[in-house]
Design a protein that fits this description.
The protein has 39 helices and 43 strands. With 1193 residues, it is α+β, with helices and mostly antiparallel strands. Its EC number is 7.2.2.-.
């Protein structure tokens, strides 16, 4: 019973999606509410504040557990490692207000689409629906499966046929109304958050609440100046944060607002078509695309006609994409599975722009609304900005642990103060305030503000280098990166390809190569026809636009595209793109070619084809171009040259990009509609035409950057959609794979029939282009060795093999990833998966790509950098406007500098708190305290300025071969703090005790004047003093005068010692502001201590001491400085010493990848070469067949 209740009480929302949540049901209970309200009043709102920080406590206190069906409050918990809670109210949607048609109260479905979740969510006969809204998305309660279901999109279970059939004629007016009420408006509304809300949210941060408490205490003690300084600083800091958040909110609001009010023509079943504002669209609506330029207000699936869309807003690539209608087929599979990963070519995404539409004979192009509002692709992007994934970085958690640790020390101080003051019989009010004063002294309230200044400075420096950042807290994480994945085309290599040559094929033999650029134009023939017509180029504003590869190929023919807007035959010409020979083209017996239909390119299929017709002729042609391996598989084998693979390898191994072309004459009747051709049927039995060879040059910055990363022991991995052989060659040329290194190709195959899944390891020799023999060599005599970081072998594989390995050989994956350098033919999904697998091995992964198909991976990585012209690409945390990979080492350098700076600031603030704590505790021993101005100089003139300027030191230009420590709570750091605190305690205690031993010392001194003649003070007899002073001063004493310079100058010493320069930051003297400030602060402290000016002494509440004593105090400080500097620089920051200590204690890194490295080093059978393994059915073991050799295949 208990188990059943738990099952009803808790379910998963968005199972297996990125934003998966656990949802718990609760019911409010009256008497609990009463108790909580009483608690709020009695605690003066403190309980309310606690509940604001911990919403789950609020729910547990006010409500009782129940099943989700009865719940009026739900508690949501994220399933990541943070487990953050949010509380939501369950609301009701009332449909009875709508004038529904007669009979809807009976058992008939409310919405015509039987599969719709709306039908299963309506409570009959009240016609009510329960719903919750989470992160802008609405969920309604589905009674049949007892869980909350997303609403605002068409069900994925629809087949192609049912979409055409159910929605092809539009919805009825009533159904539109119901859907509008249930799904909400189709708008991506980002409210500009009111300033008071932002202000409250910022001020109620636990840090600021603690700060407010501290300030109240200090103000009550008359410590006004410093309190005012902190208040002003906090106001500035809060003001800046609020201003920044408000700016972001406004920017985002403006970005999405324009698409909420677009006019669209919507068709309903009974009333025909009429104009409507886009916010009234609902999933299932049918709307027309009538040729006007249009920003799409929703996600829709095209069912009729075709159109050209600019998806730059989503992908960052402003290459026009052609969309084709969803086929009308009788298939039982859901439409997305039917179109495989290629369903996107039928979908028009929200926020993208329709540039051109092509109507059909039936009238204008038509589309059905798939998703509205925040369910759309654009809504998803906006949500990922509004609710970013929390960055799990130890620094912030450690900073919190630190503050807790300091609070514990503060509590000890509190107990100590109570004991001392009570034993002296002081009044309770004094005891309480003094005890709290010492508690707050240990915890510096500036830690959170100081941590942000470091990242703000780093962000400013990055901006100067044209690197923009939308998630500043990730800058610190960049300091930990130790593996970077690069996309190839456009990132490592030049964006455009240059046409290098074409190798025609006739009668299953390759002919002589035609080089480009050449004096003679390409002769007319099927190859020229394919190059002129097999592309998706369009003419927009008198300019040919489209995929750069298509553009280069077309330019090579010297043909021209006719601008469709100038075409004569009116509407019908919209369908057809016509190409004609230009002036420089070779003479052709045709007037031109009309491209009638396209099967567009997709990275999943790796091919595209077009159906065309020569003008004035009746026969139809189909041309195909794509990846050579794919295209040749669609050709009749007798037309493919025997030496096809060898020839292909010759070029790919030299780093050329190779595309294959093929052709077929289609035997169609006269008045056939080519748009209804089945792709599978049309693309078969083709004639192989030849290979198009394109040159893809490395960018000049690529090699030096990769060399720099390798020198810094940062791994580089190539993840590309290109051919494997080309990728390996580029990796060799770029220096990712060193000259002496071996490349092992991994080929994994799915199980076929009775044969289990297999994985083969082939040694790829460094082929010379002229050798005739195939290049898989079988000499297993050479033993491949692993030496520490650098290995002399690299694995390379394609996306298909990667997929098979993750599915059938998952236990081999970590071993392979340890040395895999090239991943080719990877789909966008596989790229994200690969980044995630690397992260599982405890790598900090950076990803650098050009933003188009790398969106997922850029988001998944610890630091994604997209190279794009836009200032901030929504796809990734970082955007570099300079389109080469120089930004990667720049970012890592800045990240390391920011990380080290953050650590330094935290260390400094901790020590400053503890130095003050020790000094104050010593003075409390005799019921005294530092004077207001004494505190003021330590707090404002020293600490505040140090915190603001310490992080200004720039990054060191050379990347060190190791990373800065990633944890605050690590031995060197903790030791550094503990030792420095010990030095402070020793020095201050010495000063405190020694001053009592001096011959001129008086316990109750009141004389502060220095007699001008001699510098020694004549001791007054205690008796006299006692009568003159009457009561003891809380500040004036020789101990105070001695401890103040000791603690103040100690703060300056610590600031200097902790501002370490090399290897991650430039030396301290390059930070001019900071260096000058330290010198000035030191000068001020010495002046106040040594100046024999009565006004200064009375203001500072000092007593005059003999000069020789002041010199002793300076000597103590000098000794402390030397000891501290020596300890920090020679011992704690000494990398070699720590390595020796680690070796001595046998300490080994716990990172997964280090463990695997150690295992593989001691494994003699790794890596397998020229072997083949099979998936073992029963056990997890994998059988390796050592005798299996690859002969010349």
């Amino acid at each position: 019973m208990e188990k059943k209740l738990w099952k009803d009480h808790c379910v998963l929302l968005n199972k297996d999606e990125e934003n998966e949540l656990e949802i718990f049901g609760y019911k409010t209970q009256g008497w609990r509410r009463v108790f909580c309200t009483a608690g709020y009043i009695l605690s003066c709102g403190a309980l309310l504040l606690l509940f604001y920080w911990r919403p789950e406590w609020d729910v547990w206190a006010n409500c009782i557990r129940c099943s989700l069906e009865e719940a009026d409050i739900v508690l949501l918990r994220t399933t990541d490692e943070f487990q953050r809670y949010t509380r939501k109210k369950v609301t009701w949607i009332d449909l009875s207000t709508l004038a529904l048609p007669f009979g809807s109260n009976s058992d008939g479905p409310l919405v015509a689409d039987k599969d719709s979740v709306i039908n299963r969510a309506v409570m009959k006969p009240q016609l009510k629906i329960r719903c919750i809204q989470v992160q802008k998305i609405r969920y309604i309660w589905d009674f049949s499966v007892k869980e909350f279901k997303k609403v605002g999109s068409l069900e994925d279970s629809n087949t192609c046929h049912s979409i055409h059939h159910k929605f092809g004629a539009g919805l009825t007016r009533e159904e539109q109304k119901i859907r509008q009420l249930v799904c909400g408006p189709n708008a991506i509304e980002v409210e500009i958050r009111p300033i008071w809300k932002l202000l409250f949210k910022e001020i109620l941060n636990p840090f600021y609440v603690f700060q407010a408490f501290t300030l109240t205490l200090w103000l009550s003690q008359g410590y006004i100046e410093y309190s005012m300084a902190i208040i002003i600083l906090s106001i500035i800091s809060v003001g800046l944060t609020v201003y920044d958040l408000r700016q972001q909110s406004t920017k985002l609001h403006d970005l999405v607002e324009e698409h909420n009010k677009v006019q669209v023509t919507v068709c309903t079943k009974s009333e025909g078509c009429k104009e409507l504002e886009s916010c009234y669209l609902v999933p299932g609506d049918l709307f027309l695309l009538d040729g006007k330029k249009l920003s799409l207000p929703c996600d829709a699936v095209l069912i009729d006609g075709s159109c050209i869309v600019n998806e730059g807003m989503l992908t960052g690539e402003s290459v026009p994409v052609t969309k084709t209608p969803l086929p009308l087929v009788e298939s039982l599979m859901p439409w997305k599975t039917h179109s495989m990963e290629d369903y996107r070519r039928h979908v028009l995404f929200c926020g993208t722009e329709v540039i051109q539409t092509k109507a059909t004979g039936k009238g204008p192009a038509r589309a059905i609304v798939l998703q509205t509002g925040f369910n759309t692709a654009k809504g998803d992007l906006v949500r990922s900005i509004l609710y970013p994934k929390p960055v799990n970085f130890k620094l912030y958690r450690d900073a919190f642990k630190f503050i807790v640790g300091l609070s514990v020390i503060g509590v000890f101080g509190l107990i100590y103060t109570v004991c001392v003051f009570v034993s002296h019989g002081k009044p309770v009010a004094d005891v309480v305030t003094m005890a709290l004063l010492l508690l707050t002294a240990a915890v510096p309230p500036a830690i959170p503000a100081a941590l942000t200044t470091g990242t703000v400075y780093a962000q400013r420096r990055l901006k100067k280098k044209k690197i923009f950042c939308i998630s500043p807290q990730r800058i610190n994480i960049c300091g930990q990166i130790n593996l970077v994945c690069f996309d190839k085309t456009g990132t490592l290599t030049e964006d455009g390809l240059d046409l290098w040559g074409i190798i025609p094929s006739e009668g299953s033999r390759f002919q002589k190569i035609h080089k480009f650029p050449s004096s003679t134009p390409l002769p007319w023939g099927p190859v020229c026809g394919a190059m002129a017509s097999c592309h998706s180029l369009v003419v927009l504003d008198k300019k040919i636009q489209g995929d750069p590869l298509d553009l280069k190929m077309f330019e090579g023919t010297h043909w021209e595209i006719e601008d469709s807007s100038t075409a004569q035959d009116g509407a019908d010409a919209l369908n057809i793109c016509v190409v004609r020979p230009g002036l420089k083209a070779s003479s052709a017996p045709v007037e031109g070619i009309a491209i009638l239909h396209q099967f567009p390119f997709s990275s999943g299929l790796q091919r595209m084809s077009v159906v065309s017709q020569k003008i004035g002729e009746e026969q139809y042609d189909l041309y195909m171009k794509g990846a050579p391996e794919i295209v040749s598989s669609f050709c009749r084998q007798d037309t493919v040259p025997v030496n096809f693979l060898k020839e292909l390898k010759t070029y790919t191994s030299q780093g050329f990009r190779v595309i294959a072309l093929a052709h077929k004459v289609l035997n169609l009747g006269k008045d056939v509609d080519v748009r209804n051709l089945e792709r599978e049927e049309a693309e078969s039995g083709l004639v192989f035409l030849g290979l198009l060879v394109m040159e893809n040059r490395l960018k000049q910055e690529t090699k030096p950057v990769l060399r720099e990363l390798a020198a810094a022991h940062i791994r580089s991995v190539m993840v590309t959609g290109d051919n494997l052989q080309t990728a390996i060659t580029v990796a060799r040329n770029a220096g990712m794979i060193h000259t002496g290194s071996k490349v092992i190709l991994i080929e994994a195959k799915e199980p076929e029939g009775s044969a289990p899944a297999s994985i083969a390891w082939l040694l790829a020799e460094d082929c010379k282009a002229n050798t005739a023999a195939p290049c898989v060599c079988a000499n297993t005599e050479e033993k491949i060795t692993l030496e520490g970081e650098t290995c002399n072998y690299h694995f390379a594989m394609n996306g298909k093999s990667y997929q098979v390995i993750t599915k059938y050989f998952y236990n081999l994956l970590p071993k392979i990833l340890m040395n895999a350098t090239v991943f080719a033919r990877m789909s966008p999904g596989q790229k994200s998966s690969l980044v995630e697998e690397f992260q599982k091995l405890d790598y900090y992964v950076g990803m650098c790509g050009d933003g188009a198909n790398d969106c997922g991976a850029l988001k998944m990585a610890h630091a994604g950098i997209s190279l794009s012209e836009q200032e901030a690409s929504v796809a990734s945390p970082f955007t570099s406007q300079i389109p080469n990979i120089q930004c990667v080492p720049e970012l890592i350098r800045e990240g390391r500098a920011a990380l080290v700076a953050s650590f330094a600031v935290v260390k400094y603030l901790t020590l400053y708190g503890l130095i003050q704590f020790v000094g104050t505790a010593l003075l409390f021993w005799q019921l005294q305290i530092f004077g207001n101005y004494q505190y003021l100089i330590q707090d404002v003139i020293i600490t505040l300025l140090v915190c603001l300027t310490m992080s200004l030191t720039e990054a060191y230009p050379k990347l060190a071969p190791y990373r800065p420590p990633g944890q605050l709570i690590s031995p060197p750091l903790l030791l550094s703090i503990i030792l420095n605190v010990c030095f402070t305690i020793a020095m201050q205690t010495c000063g405190f005790l020694l001053v009592k031993q001096q011959p001129w010392y008086v316990a109750l001194a009141s004389q502060r004047h220095c007699s001008p003649g001699n510098q020694t003070v004549s001791p007054t007899s205690p008796g006299e003093n006692g009568t003159s002073s009457g009561a003891q001063s809380t500040v004036l004493s020789y101990e105070d005068t001695t401890l103040w310079p000791l603690s103040s100058i100690n703060c300056i010493i610590v600031a200097f010692v902790f501002s370490k320069g090399k290897p991650f930051r430039k030396p301290i003297y390059t930070n001019y502001v900071f260096s000058v400030l330290l010198a000035l602060q030191l000068a001020i402290c010495l002046f106040l201590f040594f100046a024999d000016i009565d006004a200064v002494y009375s203001g500072m509440q000092f007593l005059c001491t003999p000069v020789i004593w002041r010199v002793y105090v300076l000597l103590m400080l000098l000794v402390t400085f030397c000891v501290s500097f020596f300890t920090e620089d020679v011992i704690l920051q000494n990398k070699h010493l720590w390595l020796l200590i680690k070796a001595w204690f046998g300490y080994q890194s716990n990172s997964q990848y280090r463990k695997w490295q150690r295992m593989l080093q001691s494994d003699p059978s790794w890596p397998p070469v020229n072997a083949k393994d099979f998936e073992a059915k029963s056990t997890d073991e994998i059988y390796i067949n050592p005798t299996y050799e690859h002969s010349n295949e």
